[in-house]
Amino acid sequence: MTFNYFEEFSRKVGNTPLIKLKCQETKNLSIYAKCEWHNPTGSIKDRAAIGMIKKYLDETNGKTHILEYSGGNLAKSIGQICYHLGIECTLVLSSGSGNSLLKELDNYGVEIVLVDKSEGFYAVIEKALEISNKKLDYYFLFQHYNHANILSHIEGTGHEIISQMNEKPINAWVASAGTGGTLMGVYKAVKEYTSDVELHLVMPKELPYGSEQPPNGLKKYAGSGGFGLGRKQYFLEKEDYLINKQWNYSYEDTLYEMARFYSETGIKIGTSAAANLLAAKQLGREKGKDFNIVTVFPDAGTIEEWLDVETLLSEK
Ligand SMILES: Cc1ncc(COP(=O)(O)O)c(C=O)c1O
């Protein structure tokens, strides 16, 4: 029964549409976006979730309690899957997490541990590590180091994009990084297909990748960001010399872009998708029409992000 649920859920993950953007600002450019809100819980993180939970089910070692931390989207995937599989679940989140997420996780019976948002996301990871060291019967997914995470993007997202491009070259891959699983996983797959593909990292202006600044509690676009104090994501640090450019956008920049894109296309994208789109457009304007840029829209935005869009526009 539980196995059937997981099989069924896994079958619905991936094979999301890749669309060529045709709004006013992109119609003379060649920008393609992978629309990840088509996944069962509405985001790209379903891919990493099924990869890591499959690994857990294969090597459970009798552990019946999953521990993980999240910026939001992975929590939704893990919470829902654990609920249906009857696995107990503890999730560490920032106190800045939206109420809609906290309520949903509560409904799934998840034990939630909150870390003060002023301490930044690195402190959320450290808290989960601390719990994992104390609770030896918990199975810690540890997405920033879990190979099943990056593998889901090499074998899934990356290979899907290659086949959806129908033999057209991919001249640049543009994406944000939380763990860097999406960014580096897709890059590794695409490099086998277009060997000179450029790699473009998008990050919040409030705390870019590799920043020496201390962590801060500023609002940032979703699912992404640096750790502060020069610390770097494991999936990126050994290969960050491959990054052609890092593009940085503020939370406010991404809210304006969500509103603009929605008013022109009727398509709702979230803040990280908006950041990726801002970078893809800037790069496209520099490179011209014959340069194929592929990016990703990780989700369609949370209730809280769309409320922030409304507030911002009403203040103008
Ligand atoms: C909205 C959103 N964008 C981007 C990402 C980046 O994902 P990754 O962990 O693969 O770097 C995430 C991850 O949580 C996310 O939720």
TrEMBL record:
UniProt name for this protein: Cysteine synthase
The protein's matches in InterPro entries, at most eight in alphabetical order, are given as: Cys_Synth/Cystath_Beta-Synth, P-phosphate_BS, Ser/Thr_deHydtase_PyrdxlP-BS, TrpB-like_PALP, TrpB-like_PALP_sf
Domain of life (superkingdom): Bacteria
PANTHER family given for it? CYSTATHIONINE BETA-SYNTHASE
* GO MF term list: pyridoxal phosphate binding; transferase activity, transferring alkyl or aryl (other than methyl) groups
- UniProt domain Tryptophan synthase beta chain-like PALP: residue ranges: 11-299
Cofactor (UniProt): pyridoxal 5'-phosphate
User: Biological process GO terms, please?
Assistant: cysteine biosynthetic process from serine
